[in-house]
Give the backbone structure.
Amino acid sequence: NHFLAKYKALYGDRTLGLSAEACQRLVEYEWPGNVRELENLIESLMALCPGEQILEENLPSKCTNTKAQVQQLKTRVIEGELNFEEAEKQFEMEIILKALKKTNYVQTRAADLLGISRRILKYKMDKLGISDSPETQIIEAAELNDDLAEEVSDIKDTTEEQVAVDEQELVPDGEVGV
């Protein structure tokens, strides 16, 4: 916040906030260049960030690939909250999605970035259910959301019907329930 205020005047009194996620990533990052590196990053973001708030996706990848995320995943596996295969799947999915995002979903470039062949990348994407484009992912997420909403509605209807049946069973014949 200090550096945001400092550079506010330099960039036309532009007000730029910091999202909670972006702030968390900045706190978790180790800052090998110390305070100067942080200051330079904030100045760059003030000049280049398109919106009114610095979001996690505006940060350079070095700030979002933190040791804390890996440590959290390891801890969840060790404590039995998550099995190894699921942790591996989450890690692989996150890395592939970040590579795809960084390369604007150009799979050949993403595969090169990851050091694997495009064929292997495509296989992993299919195995993990990762779409070929962000637009497809948005559509799939919306469809999943609709499906979940329908399931919740069905469960609610079934529950209401069961409650009505249960209430009828509690009231003896000829008596009016309260």
Summary: The longest strand covers residues 17-18.
